[in-house]
Amino acid sequence: MKIRPLHDRVVVRRSEEETTTASGIVLPGSAAEKPNRGEVVAVGPGRVLNSGEVQAPSVKVGDKVLFGQYAGSNTVKIDGDELLIMQESEIYGVLED
């Protein structure tokens, strides 16, 4: 099943949770924080401006993005994947290699 977000919404697959700290301590599942980065799965056509024009989104499918801890409070499960749906403005930046 595919999802097509509307307007300036972005669908993100959250990265895997970190199970060990930098010092090598293994964290149980309940203590691990949810990661604040993920990969863009789908992007809407863009935000509609007051003039009626559509402003194209700045991210594209496949981008690795960084977002806030409480961004994308809307989660959906599609084909067993848990996906976040957020507005483009909730994304802080794109991670580049």
Q: Can you describe this structure?
A:
Heptamer of 7 subunits arranged in a ring. Interacts with the chaperonin GroEL. It comes from Marinobacterium lacunae. Keywords: Chaperone, Cytoplasm, Stress response. By secondary structure, the chain is mostly beta strands. It has one domain (1-15, 35-96): GroES chaperonin (10 Kd Chaperonin, Protein Cpn10, Chain O, Roll), CATH 2.30.33. It contains no helices and eight strands. The protein has strands spanning 9-14, 37-43, 47-48, 54-55, 64-67, 74-78, 81-87, 91-95. Strands 6-7-1-2-5-8 form a six-stranded antiparallel sheet, with no helix packed on it. The protein is elongated.
Secondary-structure blueprint of this entry?
Layout: E1 9-14, E2 37-43, E3 47-48, E4 54-55, E5 64-67, E6 74-78, E7 81-87, E8 91-95
